[in-house]
């Protein structure tokens, strides 16, 4: 199937499932297709537009990793720094040799406060999301249990590791995680509408997430009220592209650090050719490793793929929990082109 046919198939399927969200397909800075469907707010029936700002859930981890990368470039720590030497969580069962690179690459071996490998939703159901207002609020949910495995031994996706990184950012900078991301990292790029905001904040063009396809039950209370480093950012497609371009141009982190981000640190799925670098997923393709970020939560589904050399950029986000995943097979065929796996 040629690319034009794939794009038509993506658009047709989006209409068939009544997709609610925003899709941008761009090659070498030129938009080849864009689709906006659904409402920012179903009560007021405010339509989703290219300016709409969406929750991106775990896509936030890329921002957290970039913040750590900046601090490494400034000499305040290194990938080999022991996390405990900066912020001691005072969990006796946690290994003292968990390094910054382990937290960034999901190889720390720490038990997770929100373990996505579990078959049930016990962890999520035990969390009072409305009371998660600071990074320290998350700490009360960190399990004081033995390590899952020794640091660096293998990959296991880990939300708590990125909350830990946010605490480290706050300790080293004296700023809140929100202020550091919004004021220090995003504002110099000209980004002021997107960033870290409270889930319940009523802001212009901020999209409300919904628990089902047609109802009016929102995700407020089902997601953390304030970002803890592992999720919670709200971004517009073009603001996120500005972040990606600045990352690739060496304007957020150094070129050497950017290369480290896009170098596999662990293999997540050998058969599918999926690896993890620093804050980025990496997929094997015929053209080499292609970075991407993704996230999902109640009323949120998100994926963004970018090609560093050609500057191709593919964005798909929905204000429903499964909107993106219903289209992801066709989206991936376009975004990754011909893959090895």
Account of the 3D structure:
The chain has helices spanning about 5-15, 60-75, 100-105, 120-125, 135-140, 160-175, 175-185, 235-250, 255-260, 330-335, and strands at about 20-25, 30-35, 40, 45, 55, 195, 235, 265-270, 275, 280-285, 290-295, 300-305, 310-320. With about 350 residues, it is an alpha+beta fold. The protein has a single domain (about 5-335), classed as Beta-lactamase. The strands form 3 sheets. Strands 2-1-13-12-11-10-9-8 form an 8-stranded antiparallel beta sheet, with helices on both faces. A hairpin with a 4-residue loop joins strand 3 (about 40) and strand 4. Helix 1 runs antiparallel to helix 10 (about 330-335) and helix 2 packs across helix 6. The relative contact order is 0.19.
Write the topology of this structure.
Blueprint: H1 3-16, E1 21-27, E2 30-37, E3 39-41, E4 46-47, E5 54-55, H2 60-73, H3 100-104, H4 122-125, H5 135-139, H6 159-173, H7 177-186, E6 195-196, E7 233-235, H8 237-249, H9 255-261, E8 266-269, E9 274-276, E10 281-285, E11 288-297, E12 300-307, E13 312-318, H10 328-335
Antiparallel strand pairs: 1-2, 1-13, 3-4, 5-7, 6-7, 8-9, 9-10, 10-11, 11-12, 12-13
Helix pairs in contact: 1-10, 2-6
């Amino acid at each position: 199937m040629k690319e034009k046919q794939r794009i038509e198939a993506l658009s047709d399927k989006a209409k068939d499932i009544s997709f609610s969200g925003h899709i941008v397909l761009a090659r070498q800075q030129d938009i080849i297709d864009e689709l906006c469907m659904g409402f920012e707010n179903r009560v007021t029936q405010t339509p989703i537009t290219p300016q709409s700002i969406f929750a991106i859930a775990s896509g936030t981890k890329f921002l957290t990793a970039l913040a750590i990368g900046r601090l490494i470039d400034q000499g305040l720590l290194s990938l080999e720094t022991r996390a405990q030497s900066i912020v001691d969580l005072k969990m006796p069962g946690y290994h003292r040799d968990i390094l910054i690179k382990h937290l960034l690459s999901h190889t720390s071996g720490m038990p997770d406060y929100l373990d996505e490998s579990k078959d049930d939703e016990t962890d999520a159901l035990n969390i009072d999301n409305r009371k998660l207002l600071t990074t320290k609020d998350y700490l009360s949910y960190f399990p004081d249990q033995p390590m899952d495995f020794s640091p660096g031994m293998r990959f296991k996706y880990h939300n708590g590791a990125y909350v830990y990184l946010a605490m480290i950012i706050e300790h080293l900078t004296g700023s809140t995680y929100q202020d550091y991301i919004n004021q220090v990292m995003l504002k110099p790029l000209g980004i002021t509408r997107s960033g870290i905001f409270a889930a319940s904040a009523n802001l212009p063009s901020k999209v409300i997430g919904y628990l089902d396809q047609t109802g009016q039950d929102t995700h407020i209370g089902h997601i953390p009220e304030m970002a803890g480093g592992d999720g919670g950012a709200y971004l517009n497609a073009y603001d996120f592209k500005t972040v990606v371009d600045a990352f690739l141009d060496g304007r957020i982190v150094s070129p050497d650090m950017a290369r480290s981000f896009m170098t596999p640190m662990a293999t997540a799925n050998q058969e599918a050719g999926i690896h993890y670098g620093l804050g980025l997923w990496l997929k094997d393709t015929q053209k080499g490793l292609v970075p991407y970020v993704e996230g999902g939560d109640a009323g949120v589904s998100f994926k963004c793929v970018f090609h560093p050399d050609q500057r191709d950029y593919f964005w798909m986000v929905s204000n429903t929990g499964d909107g993106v995943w219903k289209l992801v097979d066709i989206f991936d065929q376009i975004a990754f082109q011909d893959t090895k796996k």
